[in-house]
Amino acid sequence: MNNFKRHNLKRNSIATAIITMGTVALTLSSYAHAQQDEKNDEDVELIQVTGIRSQLTQAVATKRDSVQFVDAISADDMGKLPDTNVAESLQRVSGVQLERGIGEGSTISIRGLSQNVILVNGRQVTTAGGRGDKGPDTLESSSYSMLSLIPSSLVSSLEVSKLPGAKEIEGALGGIVNIKTRRPLDNDGQKIVASVTGSYNDLSSDNGTEASIYYSNSFLENTLGIQVAASKASLVFQEEGLNTFSGYSYDTSVTADPNDETLVFNDIRYWEINDKRERTGLNAMIQWQPTDTLDLYIDSFYSKVDSDRDRFWTGFWTCCGYDNTEISDNGVLTSASVNRPVQTNTEFAPAFTEFTSTAIGFKWYSDDWEVNGELAYTDSTSNSQQDFMRFQTAEAAEVDFNLLAGDDAPDIIFGGADLTSPEGLNLAIIYDNTAHDETTDTAVRLDFTRYFDSDFFTSVEFGARANSLETDHDYVARAMTPNFAITALPQIYTMYSNSNFFSGDGPAVNEQYLVVDKSKWQGCTTLSEFYDAAQTAECATTHDLSPSYDIAEDLLAFYTQANFSSEWGGYDITGNFGVRYVQRDLTSKGHSEDVATGAATPFTTDVSHSELLPSAVLKMDLTDDVVLRFGAARTLTFPNTSDLSSGIFVRGDYTASGGNPELDPFVINQLDFSAEWYFGESSILSTGVFYKDVESFIVNTIQPRDLPNYSQQVFVEQPINGESGTIQGLEVLYQQAFTSLPGFFENTGIMATYSYIDSETPFEDGRGNSLPIPGLSENNINMVLYYEIESFGVRLAYNWRDEYLSHLGAGDNGVFYKSYQDLAATANYKINDNVSLNFQAVNLLDTRQKQYAAYEEAIQRNVEFGTTYKLSVSVNY
């Protein structure tokens, strides 16, 4: 049974499970509602809700009061989100799916789409590489995304808008995430909150520290406020297990029949990553209300992550002369013997990424008018270095491998190769690469609201926003194959040791082998006295034009939106309708570089595009407790910045790769409906359905092009606009505080979400099988259980997401992540009104993250991160 048939069978079983879950939820809710009705007839003592229940109550109130389709997460105390970081908190929202970097959540998809807008206090921010950037990561993971840059201790609340109105910033196909910090005039007088945290990871056996402080004060009869918030964290993240760079490809030499294409694991690696990160965050704001009708503010946010990452692994290249072969029914080579050189590999990859975002704004209002204006400037920068060195045996060894030997942990035997001795090892490869990215964004907006005293229209909003976005990408690649005998060099090696590598499930050879000594390596110049003229010239390279680019975008948007409130058929209705106009002018600068001659020809491409984006939403209050919402919108986002490069790298065989600045934007026409039952202060049962018609996806293709200085057409691999597709789904949210239950249970509660998302796309693998949107799990479940009394609370948070497509690998194989589950626990104890203790345990299940190519026996990733424990002390005055 192939992978795609399994998907269909699984849908039926999941549907049955969801019907069951919904029935249980309705039963529990009905019971609670009945109990609450009984209590409404009695005199009930008013109790101030704090802690976990307070966070959930605020989230329900935000959703209930909003006209738009909005979900919210609030800090249960000042500077204390319910999860370890912003991304992991967002996964608690139905329809939001989390992608993990090394040991922590880092990026999200909303309703299966990663093209989302991130705001800080309402202004857009982006990382150094522009749209779609995952940061300076040689592994192409998401460890340095925007959400990983924002310390959770500085956050007051998160809001996710899934259907944007006309007045909201364009660019979100999935949704808009607004990360809110506190404002100084939210509190009267002085407020100080500080916390210190110690952490321990059981995989790396390393300790970490975190500290944060928040200070605010108000003056001049609470008309002038200042606040400063800062955080500092020093943490170690570790990953151990199986991974790959090249993945799988088809090989016709495995069998005697040249027509047989066998799927072969090319590059089997068992590695350890040790990533030490220093994270700094600062937020400062001044707020002044000189009159009753004017509010002025200056808001600045700064964040920086410094990473010092080391990666060590053993490996070999699977190729040629296969013996003792075993091939699965799906044509996967699961076991064989080959004669190949074997390797130990070292990578040192220090990197930093930072951004500063500052805004100056005002709000003026009268009985009939409100005017808001803001000027914002954001500067994001990243820089990364990759030093990669390979030790390789001078002679081939007999390598035996078996993909099915363990629980997705292939067994590998390197024959007589000794990777613990320099004898017989050569320094085979040296990479010394650097990358620098910077994005600046200058934005100005002016918004007007005219209020009416009418039976239908309550206000009309209109305004404009202009922003200028510029991204520079510079890259230097230095690659040498010296093939020096290690014994003929200065001692640049040391011994890597890990007696319990991958919890003992990895091959024994991975517990000890020679790697490059970090203290003795200074980049490619370390061994410059041994280089020939060509190697000396390569090491001196200062710029690489073909992958470098400069992209400038000027965007101008105008909008108008009418808001209404009335009664229809005996029901209260509120809503809005409007339209947004967006104009973009793009200038993309790059080069076409000939690998044979090194000659570079500059390219500049100018593109303009405009779009009208209508939207409408209607909220109907059937009763005080039951709400229906209907919405429709046309949304867009422009392509990832790196896809818009004019740069083209031409190889010697008249093939090339590059970007495509003439890509049209993604455009989606969207419909939404939800039914929501608010049966208590912090209780809700809601169900929503949505449909997205995607007018065009972006796909990679190879097309012939006429390029300067070439006598024939060059076949260029680049992204183009492909065929259309659809996304549709179901979202369920159930949240309840069981205050009506007896005894112990009256202090408990639950929050559970489920989403089912399906897609139809033009994406196909090499065998013509349809593929879903990358990053989209059909099924996603989150559940939070808590117990809380006045001075003590405990919270368990569970997440499970279905398997999902990662990307298309070699041989056009779909590369899938297997399903993943996670459990975290939090306990807090309030010593007194000012001091509290908090304990967290993250990744309690220590689930391994697994990935396969096309078929489940073609495993290509299986890694673990360990469990992290945190203990903190918080002081609040």
From TrEMBL:
<keyword id="KW-0813">Transport</keyword>
<dbReference type="Pfam" id="PF00593">
    <property type="entry name" value="TonB_dep_Rec_b-barrel"/>
</dbReference>
<keyword id="KW-1134">Transmembrane beta strand</keyword>
<dbReference type="InterPro" id="IPR000531">
    <property type="entry name" value="Beta-barrel_TonB"/>
</dbReference>
<keyword id="KW-0472">Membrane</keyword>
<feature type="domain" description="TonB-dependent receptor plug">
    <location>
        <begin position="63"/>
        <end position="175"/>
    </location>
</feature>
<dbReference type="InterPro" id="IPR039426">
    <property type="entry name" value="TonB-dep_rcpt-like"/>
</dbReference>
<feature type="domain" description="TonB-dependent receptor-like beta-barrel">
    <location>
        <begin position="386"/>
        <end position="844"/>
    </location>
</feature>
<keyword id="KW-0812">Transmembrane</keyword>
<keyword id="KW-0998">Cell outer membrane</keyword>
<keyword id="KW-0675">Receptor</keyword>
<feature type="signal peptide">
    <location>
        <begin position="1"/>
        <end position="34"/>
    </location>
</feature>
<keyword id="KW-0798">TonB box</keyword>
<dbReference type="GO" id="GO:0009279">
    <property type="term" value="C:cell outer membrane"/>
</dbReference>
<dbReference type="InterPro" id="IPR037066">
    <property type="entry name" value="Plug_dom_sf"/>
</dbReference>
<keyword id="KW-0732">Signal</keyword>
<dbReference type="InterPro" id="IPR012910">
    <property type="entry name" value="Plug_dom"/>
</dbReference>
<dbReference type="InterPro" id="IPR010104">
    <property type="entry name" value="TonB_rcpt_bac"/>
</dbReference>
<dbReference type="Pfam" id="PF07715">
    <property type="entry name" value="Plug"/>
</dbReference>
<protein>
    <submittedName>
        <fullName>TonB-dependent receptor</fullName>
    </submittedName>
</protein>
<comment type="similarity">
    <text>Belongs to the TonB-dependent receptor family.</text>
</comment>
<dbReference type="InterPro" id="IPR036942">
    <property type="entry name" value="Beta-barrel_TonB_sf"/>
</dbReference>
